[in-house]
Amino acid sequence: MDAAIFYGPNDIQIKDIDLREKKSNDNCLLKVLSCSVCSYDVRTFRNGHFKVTPPMILGHEICAEMVEEYQGKNFSIKPKTRVSVYPILPCFTCWYCNNKNYNLCINLKELGSTIDGGFAEYLLIPKMIFDIGGAVPVLDNISNEEAALIEPLACCLNSINQIKNLDFDSVIILGDGPIGIMQLMLLKRFFKVNITMMGKIKHRLDLAKKLGAEMTILIDNENNFEKYRESIKNANNGFSPNIIFVSNNNPNSLNLALKMANKNGKIVLFSGIKNENTKNKNTFTIDPNFIHYNQISIFGSFSSTPNNMIEAMNLVSSKEIDMKNLVTHTFSLTELKEALITAESFKGFKSIINNFS
Ligand SMILES: [Zn+2]
Ligand SMILES: [Zn+2]
Known about the structure:
Blueprint: E1 2-8, E2 11-16, E3 27-36, H1 39-47, E4 61-66, E5 70-71, E6 76-77, E7 82-85, E8 88-89, H2 95-98, E9 109-110, E10 122-126, H3 127-131, E11 135-137, H4 144-148, H5 150-161, E12 170-174, H6 178-190, E13 194-199, H7 202-210, E14 215-218, H8 225-235, E15 242-246, H9 253-260, E16 266-269, H10 288-294, E17 297-300, H11 306-317, E18 327-332, H12 336-344, E19 350-354
Helix pairs in contact: 1-12, 5-6, 5-11
The chain binds zinc ion (2 copies).
One zinc ion binds near residues 38 and 61.
């Protein structure tokens, strides 16, 4: 089968490989139908990533079709069934796994990072992912492309769960990419909040407006935070507690978020940031007195759980969340490099690899 193999920064090659030697009783063979490009893939393609040891097949936003049957203790999944794939392989022994927080497993392995992922014609998925409900059957009214986006939508649900019990009436989303748009749609679905979307790409902010953002701000320079702060203050209830989602990979964004935070404000750090090719390379200075006297909190949010995947699937199937606006560019596997560059240059929203064979 053909697979796009990442050999190192800027080096991805389509190769004909044989999966037979990796096939075992512990994994299932699936045919990839669609695999969406995540900004993580773009960053890894350009700079490498401390998690990824080449050669590796990237791609973790996967819709695939069962080639063989999965037979588990409590349920089975038949051949030809389409599934959205949860990309985390947990260890089942740590505290987090015992509490079903598989995304926080201390020994986790990830499809498309430490195990071969979805930029290929076929992939092998460890049965342990099936055992935890990580192959979520795709409902009939959902396209392959939309099904590939269930994984990032699940991650957005996880990020929103970090703040769901807090008292707030205004939200700022820093980042107008697919993640920011998904968070916008989810926040509008679950909360009565005033949303300001801040980003650098005009057409993306236009969609945010269409989807209900009360205000959009085109960021021309992160140092202009006082101007942004003033216009948001006027549009919202003055300086009420706010929540700020950092949903882009620009290293300056956390700083901007701190500048935009009101007293009792909460910041949710969704995205990994650029230059993460070396472990612990990113550092950031925070004034502890600012955090203390203003009662600021910073929350991290990483990946998702299988339950988030199921909830995401139901939200898309019931049309409460419409992913169609985000499916803007499709490519074949041999065009993966073009797809990565399209995503990198902020064209449209999602670049998706379709398996046409
Ligand atoms: Zn992703
Ligand atoms: Zn674990």
